[in-house]
């Protein structure tokens, strides 16, 4: 019976691993800043209504609502980029 020839191919070498991508998640400060912006905006608006415009900044009147809404929108902006 004829003898089989050995393989000319080298032994198996696993494929090289690709370099890992940069950090996938957010930094540690990201979530606390998001929560602070949301809560601060809510507290700003609630304070304005409860004090009937006397606080937080009485001289700007209803622009206090714009400040509170802007803080909340900033928090939502952070929330949309949270991973």
UniProtKB/TrEMBL annotation:
Keyword Cell division: yes
GO cellular component terms attached to this protein's record: plasma membrane
Pfam families noted in UniProt: CrgA
Subcellular localization: Cell membrane
Domain of life from the UniProt record: Bacteria
Main location, first listed in the record: membrane
Membrane topology, as annotated: Multi-pass membrane protein
Keyword ATP-binding: no
Keywords attached to this entry: Cell cycle, Cell division, Cell membrane, Membrane, Transmembrane, Transmembrane helix
InterPro entries: CrgA
GO BP terms in the entry: cell division
Function according to Swiss-Prot or TrEMBL: Involved in cell division.
Family in the record: Belongs to the CrgA family.
Descriptive protein name: Cell division protein CrgA
Gene assigned in the entry: crgA
């Amino acid at each position: 019976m004829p003898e089989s020839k050995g393989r000319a191919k080298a032994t198996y070498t696993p494929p090289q691993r690709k370099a890992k991508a940069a950090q996938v998640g957010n930094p540690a400060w990201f979530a606390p800043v998001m929560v602070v912006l949301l809560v601060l905006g809510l507290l700003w608006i609630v304070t304005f209504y409860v004090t009937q415009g006397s606080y937080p900044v009485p001289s700007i009147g209803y622009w206090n609502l714009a400040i509170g809404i802007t803080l909340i929108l900033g928090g939502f902006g952070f929330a949309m980029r949270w991973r």
